[in-house]
Amino acid sequence: MSEKSKLSVEFQKNKPQNSEMTPERLANLMKKREEALKRKAQFIQSHKTSNSVPSSERKLNQVKLNFEQSDQDIVEEERKNTVSIELFTKDELLMKTSVFASKNLRTAIITSGGEFNKEQSGWVISINKYQEFRDKARLIDKLTFKELPEFVTKGLLSPKIAFCKKCPHKYELESERTIESLGEDFISKLYPFQKEGVKFALERYGRALIGDEMGVGKTIQGVSIAACYEDEWPVLVICPASVKLNWRDEFLKWVPNLTPKDFNVIQNSKNCKSNAKIWIISYTLATNIESLLVEKSFNVIIADESHYLKNFNAKRTKFLVPFIQKAKRAILLSGTPVLSRPAELFTQLSCIRPDIFPSFRAFAERYCDPKIIFKRMDYSGASHMRELHVLISNTIMIRRLKSDVLSQLPEKIRQKVEIPVVHEHCQKIKKSFYDMKKKAKEPSELGEEKTEGDLFLTKAYNLTARAKMKGVCEYVSYLIQSECKFIIFGHHMEMLDAIQDQVEKEKTGYIRIDGSTNMEQRHKGVNTFQNVKDCRVAILGILSAGQGITLTAASIVVMAEMVWTPGFMIQAEDRAHRLGQQKVVNIHYLFGPGTLDEYIWPKIHSKLTVIVSALDGNENEALEDLMNPTCKVGMGDFELDSDFEFSNDPLFNLDSGEKRSHDSDFEEENETKTLKLSN
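-> structure tokens emitted (679 positions)
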């Protein structure tokens, strides 16, 4: 009999009266019955196995289960009965707990002067009233207070550094310095907020972090603070390689009794003048000549762009942090002390106040929201950020944004920034000049002198671009690492190409507009720069993009090259200085010593004087102080030379130039391209 026939017989046998059951439904029922029997067998087998476990072990398992449940209850109860304390302002605390619904507890807080803060979901109470409240609260409920970490309390009670092993100076025995020691003339040139920055540092024994936004004037404040401790010199300035010469110029400008002989701008380990008053060195070189710096034992140290010390595993940080800690005065400058996470701030804080920031672990547990990820502790998070800001603002850091001091600043601030140059190309400019003068003394036909002069200027202009190219790229890197959004103008295509290569190397968003950019691409690029936060660099040809566009998203303008007509550069500046600009515009003119810049610079200054007089009646301060070089380096001062009709202006006194030593921070790559104009 077939399976189907058997099923049919079974169906007929079990078929109840008036049943609607079909053979298919019966098959489904039989299948479910078999499944039920299997489950029953599994249950019986499981019961037998359970009975085989000794009763003592079953009791132990039950105890473990009860203990685990009890432990969870205890943790939950502790959480409910814990009051976490956080610094809210320098005079107030923020308290958070889930049991504040208690009527008696609320009464205790209010009678102690506390108020509920909806935004923070906690109670704010005066530090002076906190002890009183805590004593009341403990009588009302069984509360555990999670107090502030010891280092926070210590920093709050003492905004000035105390004697410690890492910084063994007895500051309490010395009299406090005042800004008046700078003299009336010096002080009168500082903006009010800059005076506040100097006073902030002096009140803390010359140990502070000036965290002002770029363009506000941190360098001047650093020089001023150091000048107040002139009796403790020499000073060591540690900075990015691209701004070493700028630091020298700022000291010369602000401290009148200094001369170029007082400086030791360290290019390598062989050119260190032990009797110099001001030592200036890059972060890289400082790490390479540790023994020499330790032997010198500097009392006053300035660390410019101190966020270069953010990585505590880096070689430079391992040497420089303890080195700076031991100095009597430690002045750190950075517009971006924290680039991405609080952990990056610890080394800078430890440089200044090792007495309250001795341990990264204590700092990280409080402010870095530690988590275990793949069996390792991760400190890339952030927690208690308001408290951290209050703590460091009270003890270490003063920070002002451009928007905070807008009323004190002019609309434009122009700055001459001297950058390193390639000596080889400067020598070629010098030789070309000598050749031109030699030919000028030889008999020639009418007009040949002018032709020779024009050829010299063209050649020297090209060589100037090559000489500055590497230094310009270093400066671009410096600005990018400082988290700046900026516009940079160049004239030669190769200069623009070099800048673009550097920006791409830094993996930073950018736009480029030069003579080859069509109108559609130009419009798209402007919109991108104005509206996309991650597009941080605009690379522009000074003639092709120097007018007709608005780039107010940036407040920093860099002139990588100078052109003969000052009007073009003023128009270029105004790409950022336009209607809609909410900040002061900083213009950085990159100056190459020993290049044609030394000829163009005073020529532009002279022409601007005429422009100011004609258009503004000598009342445009921003234009008046555009270029006023205070020291001549490289090929020396300009002298009048009437041999050439093309100039009728100062030319180079080449014999007065000082020879530069090799700079280990500044290597030149072989380059033989012919320069092309971008416009």
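The first strand starts at residue 82 and ends at 89.
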